[in-house]
């Protein structure tokens, strides 16, 4: 069957902001789908609320909508664009749910839009636990015993059948939100209550627990002619009980005989047929009892998933691209295998290496959250490593995780040789309860003399994995017995083949990484690069996708005469503060290099990303981003330079070491980058340019910190240098607070000292992104923050163009930007943060920070203005002037674009949501409109904050913000909202003649606010904090609002903007407009 | 104790030095590779690997040990075993023995810790080569000379080396793990059909599948003459897989020629080549063969693609097919012949392995087709 000619316009729904459970992988799949359908001649209409994606680049789809992902909004897009078909399977759970909403509300039927890939009945069958289980039983597959219930009473009845421990899973939630295991009846009741609330259909599944069983996943594809192939099998190192997104996973499956593997393959094929996914990819999870081999089907995702992205990167098979082609009618055997070119896509990849994925967590950002790993996903990112053995891949993955580890122990994070060496009791505890550190505790356990059997008993981790870890530890012990001078070549090579990094060897031999490197190279022990080719070398591969290993043969093509190569360092695993925005920049750098005729060499370890797609760059190295790994690639590919500006803090941290080792850094020099971080040099620079900075000082002890604070005056902002994302940053209003927080800051700063600045209260923060070529500076965007200074710039909403700043202030900001760019000799992107504080009635401009590199806001600015900033910057870095590139005019769009941040609080029950200098958001959305108020409403809606059109609003504000509350409350009452207030706020409002109902504080008995929240009587909470933390009353209120899905506004400026939005909505309906049309108007 | 060294030398002069695995000794054979990620035990015991040194492309081998059930014959048949890393610990609820012990038990020489991908690429580029694997002679030049002097496969009758002499009634059932109730089962006969399987080095799973399809199975040596076979009163005759070059196996080709039209015939792998030869086609040696569990085969009747298990170094030449044979299956990777059917008499065969083991079960319907053919034949009266 060739492609369908009866459809012409296809709508693709993206997955929205990056949240836990849905990350860059859906940008990757959506981008592939757009490209794949375009090349078939279809017109692609795309909607996604996330501006930081490659898929929303105006060139990817024909019509691109950055609009909120609600069925009402998408219905408007459908009405406007009239697509023939909707492809719902590439935008994660969000895309699938939205497509189902459009179906249920009759929108698809009304406009004659056909769902391709998976029909609504199929999605319902796969997603509804009851119907899925029924279907599985029908085909003779075993499923977990259990039942879906809609009340606590019924849940208790089911519990009597399945027994404790029991699993509670809310229906239709994202990333398994709310799923957990109950060990006792009290816990069970609590989980059921919460699950019922979180489930959009108010139902939960109660299941027998299969904790400790082996967990497997199969990635399956099917075409319209019923050809089914398995793309990849995945075995989880962490057994059942830990969400697969939080598990260390390995591809392919390691411990199945062929008989068992084929049984699982048969089952997978039977499942996809029975559920009826007509075309595309699905992911099916299995559990196997390690004692008996009994196999259960756990669940199926009838769409491209995170695991599909992993499977694509693990095998080289482009699942999303092929899924898109199958959806328009092609058969698998009609499509070529891009990698081999000569064979077809209808086959099962076979690999000759081992892939290990390790999740990255962010518990340090949420100290109040429970760090136990459960069936609810908590990780924020992941890294993947490829090696020829599990040992090699595991150690590479652990150093690719960028948590200070350079493999399995033997680095500065290693507690074994320190006074903090964990006791056997501690080790046992850390093994028995799944947690983010468990992999390192397996090593401690082995070193403490525990056997593989004992560890298996405590963890349920298969002895196969444990024995390979034991082999690493055994070699470590042998390595400890020798030294860099004495080690034999054979053992040195073995250490490298076991994945030991030079850094670990340096630790073991008490020398430096570079001594190890020098000696290693002298002995000719260097990595070889092998291709990822889908076929274990049976056919020649034409895609240049490589990984390192220590073997005989290297497959990287030699540099051709006249060939120019430039290397781009990616951002590594997603984490809070560093995510898709930087991947967007790296991809653009690669695109720009291609336009310049230069071969791009991408290095990254994040399997979710577009940057690690096999056709984004000319050469792709799937490798950890460490000095050693990057230098090795540099030695091999000999690029003329390396770009470190675009991958966030990860490559910047490597820049000095790379430069010292003779690697040319493209663009702004390493000296400049470092000087910007050096407080004293930076202060002198600002002074010489006549720019203002808040008074500040550096402290290395608690006493020094107190002295500095005394001198500059409270409140003060405390932060460690060289850390992205505001880690351990805090505002302190008095000495007690200061003492507490500097201790944390010293811990995070790792000996670097702590910066203490005067905190500019109530100042307006402004972000500027600019590109400089050394002569001229192009201002790409001036963003005014909505939240006041003190809220991390990555967490606050911001607006292009500025909405409240007077023209002279904006002009002053422009001039300061140009002066800084020129004085610092910036070549490429830079980001400056300003604070505007009214002093004696006059706005005064302060410079807070300058970062001569790509910032998180680059994609947002690019989408708001249509200026491809990262591409221009790349070309500038390679010697082209802004003049030559025709990029000299600042673009000030006629529309308003607002970026809003998205937070993971729903995943961390009970955590206080107040914004501060420590960044905690995982993603962003954008709202666009001619009017500020509508753009703000859209941004909120896209972020999942539904501002109510009527109903009750709870208002309780801290004393220092009480003066502003009257002007917020009055219009609310005028619009007909009813206000509930606590005593102090109520008094202020009554004095101003605004009616409100006073309610009790939590400790004053019932009914208090919590009761109203739980009963669903409150539609919006406006609460500015006077104290912070989950233990305070207000902290509990805010956490409860999150838990009950009630929007909660915690700053005055956000409340003011919300009021404007609520007013505007009474005047007009929101409309949608494609980016292509907006840019045409600029 | 320092690890034992082993060397693998190829006829082109390449020598790989690694660690010895299994028995000590020295073997010569054709060096080939298999891309299956699971199923090393089935591969080890497949008699078709006679005379070959088999390289597994998947680098971690031995992971799930060895058990008494997952065997395709009574012992290990391949000449030597080449892997990247051996797993000293086996982890599987069915494991009874380690791979190393298994190799030792059957005196099989193996090598690990070499760059198997480099070896595979060499074979892919230059073709399957003769080689010598040794733990005794560690002199590179001597080993290369031995490799060059070794006989190779072409023109040799390896079937005689693996063919059992006795006639045997097959009793062992299909393994429960292979009887997926959630997949449509192949057609099964209610009549007591009798199949005589000509054994050229048959994988046991074929006999298990024939039994599963409702047949009584008598396994006979591959050199049994046609009259003796017919005296056993079969409803159908099965031609098994087996090692090496089909052309020297003239006795079997002759016998098949005599049986054609007398009873329904079904052939697998070498059996397919022998049937084609008996009908007048020619075979040729592939550059490096098909060995693995992911080969896509198009069924021309249905238009569907089957993912198949394969193990063959020779193939039927499509250009030499006689008029009476039609191509039913083709390989989507290289367009070679994967299945033929006789237009006049009830006989068909496939180059790949519908019995799987190791490999996918996509093609087990072929056993059902054989059964249908036998039923029809029976209805029409012998």
Could you please describe the fold and organization of this structure?
- The complex is a heterodimer of chains A (1082) and B (382).
- By secondary structure, chain A is of the alpha/beta class.
- In chain A, strands 14-13-10-11-12-15-16 form a 7-stranded antiparallel beta sheet, with helices on both faces. A 7-stranded antiparallel beta sheet of chain A has the order 31-30-27-28-29-32-33. In chain A, strands 17-18-21-20-19-22 form a 6-stranded mixed beta sheet, sandwiched between helices.
- In chain A, helix 35 links the parallel strand 37 (1020-1023) and strand 38 (1048-1049).
- The radius of gyration of chain A is 28 Å and the shape is globular.
- Chain B is of the alpha/beta class and 382 residues long.
- Chain B folds into 2 domains: 5-149, 3-Layer(bba) Sandwich (Glucose Oxidase, domain 1); 159-380, Rossmann fold (3-Layer(aba) Sandwich), CATH 3.40.50.880.
- Chain B has 10 helices and 19 strands.
- Chain B has helices spanning 40-44, 99-105, 116-126, 140-149, 159-162, 204-212, 226-231, 250-259, 270-278, 365-380, and strands at 5-10, 15-22, 26-34, 52-56, 60-61, 80-82, 85-86, 109-112, 129-134, 168-169, 193-199, 215-221, 236-239, 265-268, 283-299, 305-316, 325-331, 337-342, 347-350.
- Chain B has a 10-stranded mixed beta sheet with strand order 10-12-11-13-14-19-18-17-15-16, sandwiched between helices. A 7-stranded mixed β-barrel of chain B has the order 1-2-8-6-4-3-9.
- In chain B, a hairpin with a 5-residue loop joins strand 15 (283-299) and strand 16 (305-316).
- In chain B, helix 8 (250-259) packs across helix 9 (270-278).
- The radius of gyration of chain B is 20 Å and the shape is globular.
- In chain B, 59% of the residues are buried.
- Classes of the chains: A alpha/beta (1082), B alpha/beta (382).
- Chains A and B meet through helix 9 and helix 16 of A and helix 3 and strand 15 of B.
């Amino acid at each position: 069957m060739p492609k369908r000619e009866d459809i012409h316009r296809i709508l693709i729904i993206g997955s929205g902001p990056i949240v836990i459970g849905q990350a860059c992988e859906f940008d990757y799949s959506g981008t592939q789908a757009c490209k794949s359908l375009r090349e078939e001649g279809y017109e692609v209409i795309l909607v996604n609320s996330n501006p930081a994606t490659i898929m929303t680049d105006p060139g990817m789809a024909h019509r691109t909508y950055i609009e909120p992902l609600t069925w009402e909004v998408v219905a408007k897009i459908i009405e406007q664009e009239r697509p023939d078909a909707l492809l719902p399977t590439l935008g994660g759970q969000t895309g699938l749910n939205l497509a189902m909403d459009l179906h249920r509300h009759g929108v698809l039927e009304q406009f004659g839009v056909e769902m391709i890939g998976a029909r609504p009945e199929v999605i319902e069958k796969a997603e509804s636990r009851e119907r899925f289980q029924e279907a599985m039983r029908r085909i003779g597959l075993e499923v977990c015993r259990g039942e879906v219930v809609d009340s606590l009473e019924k849940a208790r009845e089911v519990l009597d059948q399945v027994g404790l421990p029991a699993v509670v899973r809310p229906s239709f939630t994202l990333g398994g939100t709310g799923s957990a295991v109950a060990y006792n009846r009290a816990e069970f009741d609590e989980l059921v209550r919460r699950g019922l609330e979180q489930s959009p259909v108010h139902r939960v599944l109660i299941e027998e627990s299969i904790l400790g069983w082996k967990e497997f996943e199969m990635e399956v594809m099917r075409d319209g002619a019923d050809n089914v192939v398995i793309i990849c099998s995945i075995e989880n190192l962490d057994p059942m009980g830990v969400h697969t997104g939080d598990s260390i996973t390995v591809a392919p499956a390691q411990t199945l005989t062929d008989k068992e593997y084929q049984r699982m393959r048969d089952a997978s094929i039977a499942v996809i047929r029975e559920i009826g996914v007509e075309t595309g990819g699905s992911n099916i999870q299995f559990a196997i009892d390690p004692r008996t081999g009994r196999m259960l089907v756990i669940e199926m995702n009838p769409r491209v998933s995170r695991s599909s992205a992993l499977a694509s990167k693990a095998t080289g098979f482009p699942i999303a691209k092929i899924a898109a082609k199958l959806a328009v009618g092609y058969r698998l055997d009609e499509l070529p295998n891009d990698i081999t070119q000569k064979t077809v896509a209808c086959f099962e990849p076979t690999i000759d290496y081992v892939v290990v994925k390790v999740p990255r967590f962010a518990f340090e950002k949420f100290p109040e959250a429970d760090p136990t790993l459960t069936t609810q996903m908590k990780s924020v990112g992941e890294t993947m490593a490829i090696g020829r053995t599990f040992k090699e891949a595991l150690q590479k993955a652990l150093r690719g995780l960028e948590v200070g580890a350079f493999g399995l122990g033997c680095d500065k994070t290693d507690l074994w040789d320190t006074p903090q060496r964990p006791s056997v009791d501690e080790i046992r505890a850390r093994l028995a309860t799944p947690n983010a550190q468990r992999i390192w505790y397996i090593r401690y356990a082995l070193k403490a003399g525990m056997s593989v059997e004992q560890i298996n008993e405590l963890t349920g981790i298969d002895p196969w994995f444990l024995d390979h870890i034991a082999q690493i530890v055994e070699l470590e012990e042998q390595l400890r017995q020798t030294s860099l001078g004495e080690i034999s070549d054979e053992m040195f090579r073995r250490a490298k083949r076991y994945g030991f990094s030079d850094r670990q060897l340096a630790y073991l031999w008490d020398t430096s990484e570079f001594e190890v490197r020098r000696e290693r190279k002298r002995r000719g022990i260097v990595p070889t690069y092998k291709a990822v080719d889908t076929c274990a070398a049976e056919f020649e591969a034409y895609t240049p996708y490589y990984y390192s290993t220590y073997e005989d043969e290297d497959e990287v093509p030699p540099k051709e005469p006249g060939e120019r190569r430039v290397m781009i360092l990616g951002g590594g695993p997603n984490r809070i503060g560093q995510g898709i925005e930087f991947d967007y920049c790296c991809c653009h750098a690669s695109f720009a290099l291609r336009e310049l005729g230069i071969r791009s060499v991408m290095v990254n370890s994040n399997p979710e990303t577009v940057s690690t797609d096999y056709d984004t760059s000319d050469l792709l190295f799937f490798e950890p981003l460490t000095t050693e790994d990057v230098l090795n690639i540099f030695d091999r590919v000999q690029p003329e330079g390396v770009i470190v500006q675009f991958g966030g803090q990860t490559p910047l941290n490597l820049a000095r070491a790379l430069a010292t080792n003779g690697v040319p850094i493209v663009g702004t020099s390493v000296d400049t980058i470092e000087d910007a971080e050096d407080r004293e040099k930076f202060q002198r620079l600002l002074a010489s340019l006549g720019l203002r900075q808040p008074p500040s000082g550096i402290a290395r002890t608690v006493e020094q910190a107190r002295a500095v604070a005394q001198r500059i005056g409270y409140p003060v902002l405390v932060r460690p240098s060289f850390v992205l994302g505001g880690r351990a940053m805090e505002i302190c209003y008095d000495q007690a607070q200061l003492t507490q927080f500097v201790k944390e800051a010293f811990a995070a700063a790792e000996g670097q000292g702590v910066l203490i600045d005067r905190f500019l209260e109530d100042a307006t923060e402004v972000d500027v992104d600019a590109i400089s070529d050394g002569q001229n500076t192009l201002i790409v965007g001036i963003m005014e923050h909505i939240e006041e200074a003190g809220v991390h710039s990555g967490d606050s909403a911001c607006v292009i163009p500025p909405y409240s700043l007077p023209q002279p202030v904006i002009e002053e900001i422009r001039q300061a930007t140009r002066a800084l760019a020129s004085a610092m000799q910036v070549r490429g992107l830079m980001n400056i943060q300003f604070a505007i504080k009214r002093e004696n009635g006059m706005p005064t401009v302060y410079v807070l920070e300058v970062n001569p590199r790509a910032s998180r806001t680059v994609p947002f600015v690019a989408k708001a203005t249509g200026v491809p900033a990262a591409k221009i910057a790349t070309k500038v870095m390679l010697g082209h002037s802004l003049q030559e590139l025709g990029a000299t005019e600042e673009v000030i769009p006629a529309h308003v674009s607002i970026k809003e941040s998205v937070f993971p609080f729903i995943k961390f029950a009970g955590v206080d949501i107040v914004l501060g200098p420590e960044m905690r958001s995982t993603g962003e959305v954008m709202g666009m409109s001619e009017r500020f108020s509508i753009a703000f409403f859209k941004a909120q809606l896209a972020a999942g904050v539904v501002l109510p059109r009527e109903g009750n609003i709870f208002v309780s504000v801290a004393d220092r913000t009480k003066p502003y509350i009257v002007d917020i409350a009055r219009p609310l009452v005028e619009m007909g909202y009813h206000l509930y207030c606590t005593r102090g706020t109520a008094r202020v409002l009554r004095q101003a003649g605004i009616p409100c109902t006073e309610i009790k504080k939590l400790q004053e008995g019932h009914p208090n606010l919590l009761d109203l929240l739980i009963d669903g009587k409150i539609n919006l909470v406006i609460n500015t904090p006077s104290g912070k933390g989950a233990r305070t009353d207000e902290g509990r209120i805010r956490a409860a609002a999150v838990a009950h899905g009630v929007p909660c506004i915690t700053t005055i400026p956000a409340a003011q903007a919300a009021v404007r939005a609520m007013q505007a909505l009474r005047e007009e309906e929101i409309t949608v407009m494609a980016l292509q049309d907006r840019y045409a108007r600029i | 104790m320092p690890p034992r060294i082993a060397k693998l030398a190829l006829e082109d002069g390449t020598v790989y030095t690694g660690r010895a695995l299994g028995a000590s000794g020295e073997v010569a054979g054709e060096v080939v590779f298999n891309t299956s990620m699971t199923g090393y035990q089935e591969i080890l015991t497949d008699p078709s690997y006679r005379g070959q040194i088999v390289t597994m492309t998947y680098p971690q081998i031995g992971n799930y040990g060895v058990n008494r059930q997952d065997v395709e014959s009574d012992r290990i048949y391949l000449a030597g075993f080449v892997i990247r890393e051996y797993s000293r610990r086996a982890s599987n609820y069915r494991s009874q023995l380690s791979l190393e012990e298994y190799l030792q038990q059957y005196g099989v020489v193996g090598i690990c810790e070499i760059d198997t991908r480099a070896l595979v690429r060499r074979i892919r580029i230059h073709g399957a080569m003769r080689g010598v694997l040794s733990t005794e002679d560690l002199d590179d030049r001597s080993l290369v000379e031995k490799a060059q002097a070794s006989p190779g496969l072409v023109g040799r009758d390896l079937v005689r080396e693996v063919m059992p002499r006795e006639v045997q009634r097959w009793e062992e059932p299909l393994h429960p793990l292979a009887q997926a109730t959630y997949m449509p089962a192949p057609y099964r006969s209610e009549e007591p059909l009798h199949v005589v399987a000509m054994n050229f080095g048959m994988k046991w799973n074929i006999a298990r599948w024939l039994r599963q399809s409702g047949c009584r199975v008598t396994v006979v040596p591959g050199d049994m003459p046609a009259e003796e076979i017919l005296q056993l009163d079969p409803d159908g005759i099965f031609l098994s897989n087996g090692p090496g070059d089909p052309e020297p196996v003239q006795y079997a080709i002759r016998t098949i020629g005599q049986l054609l039209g007398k009873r329904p015939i079904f052939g697998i792998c070498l059996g397919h080549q022998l049937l084609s030869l008996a009908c007048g086609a020619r075979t040729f040696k592939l550059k490096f063969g098909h060995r693995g569990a992911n080969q896509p085969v198009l069924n021309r009747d249905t238009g569907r693609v089957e993912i198949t298990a394969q193990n063959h170094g020779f193939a039927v030449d499509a250009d030499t097919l006689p008029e009476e044979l039609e191509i039913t299956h083709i390989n989507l990777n290289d367009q070679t012949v994967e299945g033929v059917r006789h237009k006049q008499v009830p006989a068909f065969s496939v180059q790949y392995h519908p019995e799987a083991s190791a490999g996918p079960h996509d093609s087990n319907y072929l056993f059902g087709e054989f059964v249908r053919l036998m039923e029809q034949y029976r209805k029409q009266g012998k």
